[in-house]
């Protein structure tokens, strides 16, 4: 028996090199006729390079994580004897496990000369590194002799993508995720799907399309694919779900944001799919008491009072009794009484606070100088650089 | 462990960012830094470096990009990570790694020991040979691989050219008539020639270009030349036709024996539309003088062009010309009639003007104008502005099929292989066409070479002054086109090189007012320009191809604009009838379309799919009748990228377009597209069904036959697949012995059994009967 294995990557389209001439040239219409007679050209458009003829893969090629490894396994009886009880087994040995890929484990009763047993195996590759396809054949010869042989085919599985992420924490509890996906294979890659599967705490909005006239248009334009080494940047906005947003204390420390699910296709629809591990993010630490801004004008007039609204949340496990102090800085002057009592604040509850202030300096100014003191523990929390505001002279703003 | 990797790569990124900070202007291509201000970034970078040793969790809060562990494919990653999951994973993976190592070692041992007991050597398709098959010319492969292939090509060329360059006295040379051998034998003693032979030798190494050989000569200033120039070098025979040639011209009978009678075909061939009835009898004579003139020395960097004289490149020194005015005056007399401007204007046919129109560059135009205006004075033209082509290799004859037969089937079988060669056909255009149509392109290249040698542009003639005629350029075109067809791109490039950018003044008819009186435009056929522009892309320089195609596009567009404005093609004020103008617009539109086609093909080769698709769309404007084919082609491009949805959209458009026209062809196209779509969706069974559908309509459709067979293989039906392919090859070997089909067939033979060798040899025999010497034997995989 003879054993042969061939990896079935997708076939490729035959390309030809068009050489044309004109009627008045020396060869007349000879070149054009030759191209017409060539079966691999497109009839009626012979100059088109990309033909329709499929050719089988010429070498093993590369295989990448997440792709499907397909292989043809053929056992052929090259002898002139009938052999019996043929059992073909195909296993894939990876660094961590051994998988059986054979479609059927039943033995074939007999194989006549010049006949063959065919099998096409498929396996979605889930590990990087060395894989060994182990094919074993056992059979009985006519003389009753038990025969057994094995063959090994080794191949490397490579990483197709490089994914990098980056988080931005917005004031409003939203989290923005930038994900850079780089094609580190050697062929163009069509990104069929890149989505963020959020963890249970978040809702996700994909920010990779622009709505124009009711039609969503990809921010990547008509270029639907990634050339080798190209990187694409995807942007997602994650909002904590209502029930979690309320309890500000919950989103604390390292949280699981979700994972990216990536589906791509290459030559003739060869498909690959990967997911990242859970993306994690360190939620900004708010300490025991969190002060966040609800409203603030972006531009204000010089030396004119303006209002801001703050939200004060108790992130600790105990009730607090808070006193608000307002300290003026070089530019920011608070209006109103400093040292006023805000009353008791229970864990995970919050209160809104309207404050008035003015700036004496033009330009981009930082709102600073709020102090909260918990009278129970005599602990003071300082809040500086809460927000920025642009201060302009009143004449400019009016004009 | 990969987690560890992740960390270290992000660390790398940090340092890279810092590097970027330092070398501010340098933009690293892979560094898509996010829109952070430069200042911010710097502090950012510093921070991360200092914190690099801190724990992993801290890093998550930074503004830097993190490498993410791509765990596994989704099906495998149930192990959702909690807060500690990440760290656990690292540990796990590290452990796994350790286990791996030992395991892998164990496997290796197992692997080795088992290898010896199995018949390892006879598995050509063995998967363990990962990526070793560099020879494969799969176009879909990466850019990197394409680049890799380039030096590969370079390696191929010396193998083919070296022997040719070395053996100068091949039988072919001896076969040549005295008239053609004579010039070369006379050229030999001229010391200059040795320089060129050196240049040629150097040229057998692909990376060395001829200009290196030229340079020492071009340095000389024109003022020196007259001093250095010695009359000894000059060959007085220049103006006298060699005996055999004059005999030939005197004798109209077609003797059909030697290369000398190529002139016959030149004068009788219907495509030659030269032109001057007054001079008709003397044109050949003059040509012979031209071709001999080409042997003159060439150390002179400038050449006088004297309008009263027939030949520009011929007499190399002005000194010489004034010394020997006699023979020229004889010829001049013949042309006396052509001095009449009206007669010449009439001579230029409508067709010639339309086809040969081309817009030269400013510089070239100036030279041409001065040639036209300075009737009897000498125009000096820099040598580097002249075109001095010559064969760079003698003979690429050879029959790979026969060689293989000798190797595998023995001498007896090989003897049976009979193909036409350059000797077995008429030494004329007729013979040339015969060789081309019988697919003996190597022999045809050879014959072109002989005919060019007769023109004085033979082997080693590169860099020597040459005269050009419509025919010599057509011969060059055919030769170069065939070299491209044979994938001998380096050879084509070498021989193209003396032609520069095909814009030198001596490539225009205006340069030869006496040979082609009144005729205007370019001698270079448009198709040769296309070929010239396309060539670099096959040598790994598609950008150059695009540049050349763009300048062609500009000229075509300019010509069309001129026509629209009521001018002649070249912008001159010539009256053209409406009918002729229409015909001209049509011709130039189709030429512009041809240029766009090449651009699209080139962009496709560059894998710039977006631009390629745009370019194909614009081709549709010029060739509306090809719309369905082109739309299908675009659809296939999207399939290749993997964008099945867009492909489907295009295929639907094709169905809309073809809906209007019915007919077999469009029906086939629609079915074919559907099959391809199923292929893209991994549904080989359906794809097979549609390919079979096509066969019901057109049972001899090679593509459908082949593609159906390929689908069968993917469905695990090797035997059926083989049967289909074999049936098809036997049914009509004339058409189906195609490279791609045979490649598929041999691949399946290899998969099928150990007897693939015999079966391949049977294919070789079939090929030997049907195919010419241009057959690419690589697809038989017998090597």
UniProtKB/TrEMBL annotation, chain A:
Domain Trafficking protein particle complex subunit 13 middle intervals: 161-284
Pfam families, per the entry: TRAPPC13_C, TRAPPC13_M, TRAPPC13_N
Annotated Trafficking protein particle complex subunit 13 C-terminal domain residues: 297-391
Source organism, top-level taxon: Eukaryota
InterPro entries noted in UniProt: TRAPPC13 (IPR010378), TRAPPC13_C (IPR055428), TRAPPC13_M (IPR055429), TRAPPC13_N (IPR055427)
Subunit description: Part of the multisubunit TRAPP (transport protein particle) complex.
Protein name: Trafficking protein particle complex subunit 13
Organismal lineage: Eukaryota, Metazoa, Chordata, Craniata, Vertebrata
Gene, per the UniProt record: Trappc13
UniProtKB/TrEMBL annotation, chain B:
Gene Ontology biological-process entries: vesicle-mediated transport
Listed Basic and acidic residues bias regions: 95-111, 136-152
Record's GO cellular component terms: endoplasmic reticulum-Golgi intermediate compartment; Golgi apparatus; nucleus; TRAPP complex
Ranges where the record places region Disordered: 1-20, 95-189, 277-323
Subcellular location: Endoplasmic reticulum-Golgi intermediate compartment; Nucleus
SMART domains cross-referenced by the UniProt entry: TPR
Alphabetical UniProt keywords: Coiled coil, ER-Golgi transport, Nucleus, Phosphoprotein, Repeat, TPR repeat, Transport
A Pfam family per the record: TPR_6
Comp. bias regions, Low complexity: 277-300
Quaternary structure, from the entry: Component of the multisubunit TRAPP (transport protein particle) complex, which includes at least TRAPPC2, TRAPPC2L, TRAPPC3, TRAPPC3L, TRAPPC4, TRAPPC5, TRAPPC8, TRAPPC9, TRAPPC10, TRAPPC11 and TRAPPC12. Interacts with CENPE.
Protein name: Trafficking protein particle complex subunit 12
Species per Swiss-Prot/TrEMBL record: Loxia curvirostra (Red crossbill)
Organism lineage: Eukaryota, Metazoa, Chordata, Craniata, Vertebrata
Gene of this entry: Trappc12
């Amino acid at each position: 028996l003879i054993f042969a294995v061939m990896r079935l990557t997708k076939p490729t389209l035959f390309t030809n090199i068009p050489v044309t001439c004109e009627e008045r040239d020396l060869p007349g219409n000879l070149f054009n006729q030759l191209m017409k007679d060539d079966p691999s050209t497109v009839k009626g458009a012979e100059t088109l390079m990309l033909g329709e003829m499929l050719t089988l893969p010429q070498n093993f090629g590369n295989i990448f994580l997440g792709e499907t490894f397909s292989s043809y396994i053929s056992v052929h009886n090259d002898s002139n004897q009938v052999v019996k009880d043929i059992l073909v087994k195909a296993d894939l040995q990876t660094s961590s496990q051994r998988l059986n890929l054979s479609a059927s484990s039943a033995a074939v009763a007999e194989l006549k000369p010049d006949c063959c047993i065919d099998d096409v195996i498929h396996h979605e590759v889930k590990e990087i590194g060395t894989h060994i396809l182990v094919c074993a054949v056992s059979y009985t010869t006519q003389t009753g002799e038990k025969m057994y042989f094995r063959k090994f085919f080794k191949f490397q599985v490579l990483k197709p993508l490089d994914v990098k992420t980056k988080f931005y924490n917005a004031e409003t509890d939203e989290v923005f995720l930038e994900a850079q996906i780089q094609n580190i294979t050697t062929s163009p890659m069509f990104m069929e799907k890149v989505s963020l599967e959020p963890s249970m705490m978040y809702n996700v909005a994909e920010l990779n399309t622009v709505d124009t006239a009711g039609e969503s248009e990809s921010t990547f334009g008509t270029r639907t694919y990634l050339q080798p080494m190209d990187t694409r940047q995807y942007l997602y906005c994650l909002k904590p779900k209502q029930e979690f947003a309320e309890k500000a204390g919950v989103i604390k420390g390292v949280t699981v944001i979700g994972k990216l699910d990536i589906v791509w296709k290459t030559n003739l629809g060869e498909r690959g799919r990967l997911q990242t591990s859970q993306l994690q993010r360190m939620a900004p630490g708010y300490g025991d008491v969190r002060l966040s801004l609800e409203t603030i004008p972006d531009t204000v007039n010089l030396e004119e009072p303006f209002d801001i609204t703050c939200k004060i949340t108790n992130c600790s496990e105990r009730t607090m009794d808070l006193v608000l102090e307002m300290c003026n800085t070089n530019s920011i002057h608070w209006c109103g009484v400093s040292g006023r009592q805000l009353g008791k604040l229970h864990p995970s509850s919050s209160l809104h606070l309207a404050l008035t202030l003015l700036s004496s300096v033009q330009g981009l100014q930082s709102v600073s100088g709020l102090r909260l003191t918990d009278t129970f523990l005599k602990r003071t929390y300082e809040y500086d650089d809460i927000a920025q505001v642009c201060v302009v002279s009143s004449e400019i703003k009016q004009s | 462990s990969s987690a560890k990797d992740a960390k270290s790569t992000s660390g790398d990124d940090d340092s890279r960012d810092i590097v970027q900070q330092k070398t501010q202007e340098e933009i690293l291509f892979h560094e898509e830094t996010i829109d952070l201000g430069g200042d911010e970034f710097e502090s950012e970078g510093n921070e991360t470096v200092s914190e690099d040793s801190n724990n992993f969790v801290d890093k998550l809060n930074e503004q830097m990009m993190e490498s993410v562990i791509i765990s596994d494919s989704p099906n495998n990653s149930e192990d959702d990570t909690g807060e500690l999951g990440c760290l656990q994973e690292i540990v796990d993976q590290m452990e796994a790694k350790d286990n791996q190592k030992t395991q892998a070692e164990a496997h290796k041992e197992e692997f080795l020991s088992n290898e010896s007991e199995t018949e390892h050597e006879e598995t050509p398709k063995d998967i363990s040979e990962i990526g070793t098959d560099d020879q494969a010319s799969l176009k879909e492969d990466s850019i990197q691989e394409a680049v890799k292939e380039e030096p590969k090509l370079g390696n191929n060329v010396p193998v083919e050219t070296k022997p040719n360059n070395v053996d100068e006295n091949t039988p072919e040379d001896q076969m040549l008539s005295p008239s053609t051998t004579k010039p070369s034998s006379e050229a030999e003693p001229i010391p200059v020639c040795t320089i060129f032979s050196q240049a040629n030798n150097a040229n057998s190494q692909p990376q060395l270009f001829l200009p290196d050989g030229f340079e020492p000569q071009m340095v000389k200033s024109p003022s020196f030349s007259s001093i250095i120039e010695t009359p000894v070098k000059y060959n007085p025979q220049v103006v006298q036709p060699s005996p055999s040639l004059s005999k030939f011209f005197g004798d109209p009978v077609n003797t059909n024996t030697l290369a000398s009678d190529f002139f016959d075909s030149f004068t009788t061939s219907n495509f030659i539309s030269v032109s001057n009835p007054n001079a008709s009898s003397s044109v050949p004579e003059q040509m012979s003088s031209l071709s001999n003139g080409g042997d003159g020395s060439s150390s002179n960097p400038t050449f006088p062009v004297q309008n009263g004289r027939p030949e520009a490149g011929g007499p190399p020194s002005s000194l010489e010309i004034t010394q020997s005015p006699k023979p020229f005056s004889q010829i001049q007399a013949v042309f006396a009639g052509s001095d009449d401007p009206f007669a010449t204007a009439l001579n230029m046919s409508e067709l010639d003007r339309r086809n040969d129109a081309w817009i030269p560059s400013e510089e070239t135009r100036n030279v041409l104008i001065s040639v036209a205006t300075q009737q009897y004075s000498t125009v000096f033209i820099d040598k580097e502005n002249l075109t001095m082509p010559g064969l760079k290799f003698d003979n690429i004859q050879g029959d790979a099929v026969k060689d293989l037969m000798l190797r595998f089937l023995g001498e007896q079988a090989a003897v049976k292989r009979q193909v036409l060669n350059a000797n077995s056909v008429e030494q004329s255009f007729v013979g040339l066409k015969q060789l081309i149509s019988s697919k003996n392109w190597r022999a045809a290249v050879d014959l072109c070479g002989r005919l060019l040698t007769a023109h004085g542009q033979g082997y080693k003639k590169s860099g020597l002054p040459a005269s050009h005629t419509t025919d010599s350029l057509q011969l060059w075109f055919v030769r170069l086109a065939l070299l491209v067809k044979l994938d001998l791109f380096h050879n084509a490039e070498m021989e193209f090189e003396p032609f520069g950018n095909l814009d030198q003044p001596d490539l225009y008819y205006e340069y030869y007012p006496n040979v082609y009186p009144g005729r205007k435009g370019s001698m270079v056929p448009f198709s040769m320009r296309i070929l010239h522009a396309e060539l670099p892309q096959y040598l790994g320089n598609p950008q150059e191809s695009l540049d050349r195609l763009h300048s062609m596009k500009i000229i075509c567009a300019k010509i069309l604009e001129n026509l629209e404005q009521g001018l002649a093609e070249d912008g001159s004020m010539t009256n053209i009838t409406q009918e002729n103008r229409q015909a001209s617009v049509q011709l130039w539109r189709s030429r512009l379309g041809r240029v766009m086609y090449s651009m699209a093909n080139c962009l496709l080769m560059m894998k710039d799919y977006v631009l390629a698709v745009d370019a194909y769309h614009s081709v549709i404007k010029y060739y509306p009748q090809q719309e369905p084919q082109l739309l299908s082609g675009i659809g296939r491009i999207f399939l290749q990228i993997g964008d099945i949805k867009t492909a489907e959209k295009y295929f639907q458009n094709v169905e809309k377009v073809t809906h209007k026209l019915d007919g077999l062809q469009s029906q086939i196209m629609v079915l074919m597209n559907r099959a391809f779509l199923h292929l893209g969706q991994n549904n080989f069974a359906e794809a097979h069904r549609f390919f079979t559908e096509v066969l019901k309509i057109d049972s001899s459709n090679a593509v459908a036959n082949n593609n159906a067979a390929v689908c069968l293989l993917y469905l695990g039906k090797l035997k059926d697949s083989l049967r289909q392919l074999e049936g098809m090859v036997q049914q009509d070997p004339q058409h189906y012995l195609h490279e791609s089909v045979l490649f598929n067939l041999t691949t399946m033979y290899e998969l099928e059994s150990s007897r693939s060798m015999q079966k391949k040899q049977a294919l070789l025999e079939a090929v030997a009967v049907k195919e010419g010497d241009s057959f690419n034997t690589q697809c038989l995989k017998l090597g």
